[in-house]
């Protein structure tokens, strides 16, 4: 993604895509002092744009740093990025991190906080799984406890086990991996939340040790509008045996049906289709 035409917003200005670089002694590269957002624009408008900018600020706070741009300034920067790159349907990546400077130890009080926003075209995250139902591996790593790491931040450090688990899943011919949490409950995929259907009701893990995704919250609202009961609760992996349908939610994933998780199979059923279609409409309203 580094060698191409385009413009990236960096620390207050649009610069050439190829020049959007950082120094090798960037604190974030060594110590994961970085937070980010994944957003999607539909027809030139970012879905839940403000919520994403607010979450970026909240994530930075959880890592004990302040983003030097207000939510309004970030909103304006995102508009500039889409316009400068002539994008209408696009993925938007905002990232904020502790840069290079006076400090090279673990402490980083004097290094500047840097912010960048890039955007590019990015189609279906799970490719044709979106139609057939994705196949998921069960990750060997567990989502950590909220006493171990700030689990509600969208922070780079939480993605180390995501990359490892996703690679392992792909090596086995799966599209993604499903994490259990430190207690053994079903948690989330490497970049998406999960929902199950049984007897016309929906069950989804309680987000007490992972990201309560913006798409997840949107989909819960859509289900409630349809008077469908949503149980946010702790789910044991064995319960997957009795669930009939399953889907993932995320900005990149949107609503993606799941056909298989480890030994458990699901049908791509009517409610899954309905919610996936309704989400596609909603993001363009
Ligand atoms: N969990 C993880 C680990 C993620 O990376 C994402 C994607 N941001 C999600 C859940 C879903 O969040 P959202 O719906 O806000 O994109």
UniProtKB/TrEMBL annotation:
Under catalytic activity, the entry for this protein gives:
L-leucine + 2-oxoglutarate = 4-methyl-2-oxopentanoate + L-glutamate; L-valine + 2-oxoglutarate = 3-methyl-2-oxobutanoate + L-glutamate; L-isoleucine + 2-oxoglutarate = (S)-3-methyl-2-oxopentanoate + L-glutamate
Protein keywords: Amino-acid biosynthesis, Aminotransferase, Branched-chain amino acid biosynthesis, Pyridoxal phosphate, Transferase
* Top-level taxonomic group: Bacteria
Q: Which Pfam families match?
A: Aminotran_4
GO terms of biological process kind: isoleucine biosynthetic process; L-leucine biosynthetic process; L-valine biosynthetic process
Question: What's the EC number here?
Answer: 2.6.1.42
Principal EC category: transferase
Q: In which pathway does it act?
A: Amino-acid biosynthesis; L-isoleucine biosynthesis; L-isoleucine from 2-oxobutanoate: step 4/4; Amino-acid biosynthesis; L-leucine biosynthesis; L-leucine from 3-methyl-2-oxobutanoate: step 4/4; Amino-acid biosynthesis; L-valine biosynthesis; L-valine from pyruvate: step 4/4
A GO molecular function assigned to this protein is: L-valine-2-oxoglutarate transaminase activity
Needed cofactors, names only, are: pyridoxal 5'-phosphate
Functional description taken from the UniProt entry:
Acts on leucine, isoleucine and valine.
Q: Which family does it belong to?
A: Belongs to the class-IV pyridoxal-phosphate-dependent aminotransferase family.
Name used for this protein in its record:
Branched-chain-amino-acid aminotransferase
Q: Which organism encodes this protein?
A: Jhaorihella thermophila
The top of its lineage is: Bacteria, Pseudomonadati, Pseudomonadota, Alphaproteobacteria, Rhodobacterales
